[in-house]
Amino acid sequence: MAESPIGGEMLGPRDDYDEEEAGKRCSVDQCFAPGYHFYKMVWLFVICSFLGCAFETIYTLIRYHYFALRVGVIYGPFSEIYGFAAIIMILFLHRIDLHIKLRELYLFFACAIVGSAYEFVCSFLQETALGTVSWDYSSHPFNILGRTSLLYAFFWGIMGVLLIKNIYPIISHYVEKIPYKPGVAITWILLAFMIFDLTISAMAVYRANERHRGIPASNAVQVQLDEHYPDSVIKRVYPNMKNVD
Questions:
Q1: Could you count the other beta carbons within 10 Å of the beta carbon of residue 235?
Q2: CB 187 within 8 A of CB 43
Q3: Long-range contacts from 67-75, C-beta under 8 angstroms, 24+ separation
Q4: Residue 41's closest CA among 158, 162, 190, 193?
Q5: Do strands 132-133 and 242-243 pair parallel, antiparallel, or not at all (unpaired)?
Q6: Which residues pair with 149 in a beta bridge?
Q7: What's the start-to-end Cα distance of the chain, in Å?
Q8: Residue 39: which of 171, 208, 227 has the closest Cα?
Q9: Per residue of the chain (245 residues), what is the pLDDT tens digit?
Q10: Can you tell me the distance from the alpha carbon of 159 to that of 165, in angstroms, rounded to the nearest whole number?
Q11: CB atoms inside a 10 Å sphere around CB 25
């Protein structure tokens, strides 16, 4: 049997899992990224970005009957929206009392509210900063300006509960088992790669929106973006993204 994050015999729901207590024990044993360590949040971001991409891809396959990687960045099978959402939910919602009655119900509603607010903000920032939108729920009942809806609030609630109770304890457990020196090096490599990926993706989308508005390249950076990330690449990577005129 696999060991649990707090030394039991089985990895499963975190009804009795206390990350802070596990972090204290882990720090004594000198294991990697104890508690809510920055390094662990980097791994959480990368893993949940990958899982989010997998979820979106499977959802698309089931609902629309075609296969397409639903990525949020140009390089790699990652959807950063899920990575950031995982960090927010873990850091802000993990303190909900583990032993109160109907805890899962409280946790579900908290995740639904936080997830919906986060999705709304992401849509607003994408439209404001990049001049594009990647989803529009205007046709859904009980939507808020097309940026989020009651249906997706339900999805956020379910995913948040699964993350906090099931997925995160497993991630935390195995991240803490990474050898310290290689772990530090790999973490910084992952962080540097994800920062580059997020930055170049945002720049490429912003430049694509400029091309859409008829703005010609006026410097070397824009020329390179036009050459390496033309509209054909942007359309392939982000088939559902639309420009906001």
A1: 11
A2: yes
A3: 68/239, 71/237, 72/201, 73/197, 73/198, 73/201, 74/197, 74/200, 74/201, 74/204, 74/229, 74/233, 74/237, 75/193, 75/197, 75/200, 75/201
A4: 190
A5: antiparallel
A6: 143
A7: 57
A8: 171
A9: 333 333 333 344 444 455 655 555 555 456 799 989 999 999 999 999 999 999 999 988 998 888 888 999 999 999 999 999 999 999 998 777 555 556 788 899 999 999 999 999 999 999 999 999 999 999 999 999 999 999 999 999 999 999 999 999 999 999 999 999 999 999 999 999 999 999 999 999 999 999 999 999 999 999 999 999 999 999 999 999 999 97
A10: 10
A11: 17
Q: Spell out the residues 6+ positions from residue 152 whose beta carbon is closer than 8 angstroms to its own.
A: 115, 116, 119, 137, 140
Tokens 């709304």 correspond to what residue? Answer: 120
Report pTM. 0.86
Give yes or no for a contact between 25 and 40, defined as CB atoms under 8 angstroms apart.
no
- What are 115's two structure tokens? 């997830």
